[in-house]
Amino acid sequence: MDRNYYQSLHRSMIATVVFVSFMPLLVITLLAGYQFTTAYKEKVLDHIREIVQKHEQVINNYLDEKVAEVRVLTDTLEGSCFVNERSLRNLHESLVRRHGGDFVDLGMVSTDGKLVAYSGPFKLGKADYSGAKWFQEVMQRRVYISDVFLGLRGVPHFIIAVLFESDGEEWILRTTLDFVSFNQLVEDIRIGKTGQAFIINRAGEFQTTPRVDLEKELPFVRELLKTSPPANALSSTPRVRTAITESPISGRETIFVNSPLKNGEWTLIYQQDTADAFSQLHRIRGMGFIVLLLGGVGITVMAFVLSSRMVARIRQADMSKEMMNEQVIEAGKLASVGELAAGIAHEINNPVAIMMEEAGWIEDLMAEGLEVDDNMDEARRALTQIRTQGARCRDITHKLLSFARKIDPTVKRVNVNDLIEEIAALSEQRAKYANVRINTVLGEGLPEIPASPSEMQQVVLNLVNNAIDAMSGKGGDLTMTTRHANDEVVLVVSDTGMGIPRANLSRIFDPFFTTKPVGKGTGLGLSIIYGIINKMGGEISVTSTVDIGTAFTIRLPVEDAAGGKDNEE
Question: pLDDT over 70 for what percent of the chain?
């Protein structure tokens, strides 16, 4: 067992003792805390709702007051006072003196939408408002407060327009209210660090400027207004609606309180992070947890001491058991030496047999005479084959020695198609003796892969030998197929042999597992293949049906396991 196991066991025992000891106190604390939290949150929400409703009344009163002041002018003065620009300017200056800077300008508009007279800071000329929304609305309602818009002047503003009759003719008196002063009324609704308010219209457009940019949050607010629960008629603030949900922009839980303005055409929205709104509650909770923690120090220390002693005893018992296991494993290693030696002989047997065959063939050629026909060329070919097979033996022994000494074989760029053709040629004679036909279906333009050539040769050769062994006696077809798919080179070695029983498929890659007769196999071949392929970052899988055949599929990355090209590029 590793150290983490005992640490985990130690922690579990401490947690169990502490949990059982604290359970009664914890239950009482949670119940009392829940009751206090519920009452405190409701009190805070009621306070926020009351503030929002009061400001809603202040804003509505502000708008009603400005409408009333404009209507006083239209009710007490003749239309000629507004048509004359000098008189209109004097009237505007008087409004500014008596009511501050709320009235930015005054304008007299005819019923066909033409600006007749104007007093204010902008040069509007003979503006035509016949197509403006506010003009069409005031013609129907007679009194209209517009949404905030840019208009001809290109700055945010909203207007109050009043349709009145003078001397048998209808006129429209239009005034622009100071957006900054109006915006300040909403900005004053501020509680804590994150509390802020803003106004939107029915289309979900800002009518004031929030302290923080909320443009990305606006679609969420629109949907929230559609789904927010109806106001409680029994509440002290029946027009105010409240929702607590997570903001998709900040990712924090947020309180949203809204109330209608201007007969429902606008909505006043206040929002504040719950962590900010309930900050006092969090401080009280923190104090409670500290008291609870200090009260449990004694129990925790005792649980720690007791569990430490118990874990020490368990560790001592496990160490004795581990020593026995190591002795069993060591005995198994000694028993595997004979199997490993047989495996080495099995790997070298094929190239040695080929060398012996080629040497015998050279003797025949020499007996016949090297000068006869093309015997000299044939002798050179046989010598080349002997040299090649000798190199194979050297590579196999190098691989085994490298494995034993933990030396990584040299990685090069390997063309799998060339390797397949080489193994097929080398195995041709043995396949003929076993009545096995070797077929190759090689994909065109196959990319090279980073691998050890000797390791890849061993992988393919082992699979070919296993396939030939599976078909010995009755013969059959051995097919090697390659293709390029999804930045991988796929190699499939299939045979029409006896197949592998389903019960053995999950064990064929285990070391020393074999179904061959004693002395015919070590059970290391597929295990070595699995290790080589896994080291290269590839995958090997097998499908098999008894009496039909077996197919091994190997997938090798075009790039190495580290994600880059091999070191020889």
Answer: 86
